[in-house]
Amino acid sequence: MQLAGTDLRVLRVFDAVVRHGGFAAAQAELNVSQPTISNHITALEQRLGVSVCQRGRTGFRLTEKGEMVFAATQRLLKALDDFSEEVGSLKGQLAGDLKVGVVDCIATDPNCRLQEVISRFSARPNEVTLCLSQEFPQNLQEKVLKGDLHIGIGSFPHKIKGLDYTPLYEETHGLYCGQGHHLFNVEERKLDIDGLRNEPIVSRAYWRDEHRKSLGFNNVAAVVYQIEPQLIAVMSGRYIGFLPEHYARSWVESGVLRRLASGAVLYVCVFDMILRSGYRQTQVVETFASDLRSAYGK
User: Fold this and answer.
1) Which residue range(s) make up the domain with 222?
2) Helix H segments across 204-265?
3) How far apart are the C-alpha atoms of 6 and 3, rounded to whole Å?
4) Are residues 145 and 66 part of one domain?
5) What is the CATH classification number for the domain harbouring 16?
6) Which of 113, 118, 220, 265 could bridge 175 with an S-S bond, Cβ 3.0-4.6 Å?
7) How many Å apart are CA 213 and CA 47, to the nearest integer?
C-alpha cells in the first residue's frame, strides 16, 4: 500500500476514533460530523480491503485486523511526528507536539512551577504545539507508558514498570470536614484522633486498600477520582476527607471547611515527573523535561 496525503488524513481520523472509543466521542477533536467520520472509516476499509471495526447499536469495537491496523497507524504517526521534529531542529528550533498530563488541583500550590516551566520553554524559538490535559494518577501512568502522553506530573502511590520517576516536590494534605458536620464546631482539644479514624470518610478510588489503611482510616463511605469531587463530598457535611492544604485554604478562611486535628493528621505525597523508560525522547520532550528538572534543582 503506497500512502497518499488522503490516506494520512483518513488514518488520523481512524486514530482519533479508536482513542476516543467511537465516532461521537471523536467529533470534538476532529471537528467534523459523525457521517463524515463514518465516510472516512469506510474509505479506509475500502483502501485496505479489510474491516477495521464494528459499529452500530452495540457500540464501537475494533476487529482483530483493526487492532493490527491501529498499532501500525500509531507507529506511522509517531514516525511522522519524529520526522517533523528532526527537520525542524535543522533550522535551529524546536518543532512538533508536546503532550503533558497533570493531576487536578495543582494551580494553587506554590510548589507547582509548571507555569514557569511552560513560560521558559515557550520563550525559545519554536513551532511546538503544547497539549496540556488532566487525568487521575493511574490514567497518567498508562498514557505515558503507551505513548499517548510524553510527560506526566503527579503523585503516584503505586509505581509501575516501564516508567522513570523523578521526584519534584511534596504536597501536604490535611483532614477536613464541612459545615453541617457534627465535628465542625467541636473544640480542638476535645477531638479524639482515634475517633476521627472511625468517621465516614471520602477516599480516592486510586488508593489501594493497603495505602488507605496505612493512613488509619477504615470507614470508607464514598470514593472519588479527583480532588474537586472530594471537596464537594466533604462540603456536604456527611464525610471527612483529605484535601491539599493549598487547595482547602480559601474554603477554611471563608468558614466553609474546618481543618481537623491541625498538625496531627497529615498525608504527604511526593509529586513526580514520569517519562517512558528505555525510550529515546524527542528533542522537544527532553528540553521540556530538562526545564522541569532545572526548576526544582534536579
Assistant:
1) 170-269
2) 209-214, 227-235, 245-253
3) 8
4) no
5) 1.10.10.10
6) 265
7) 55
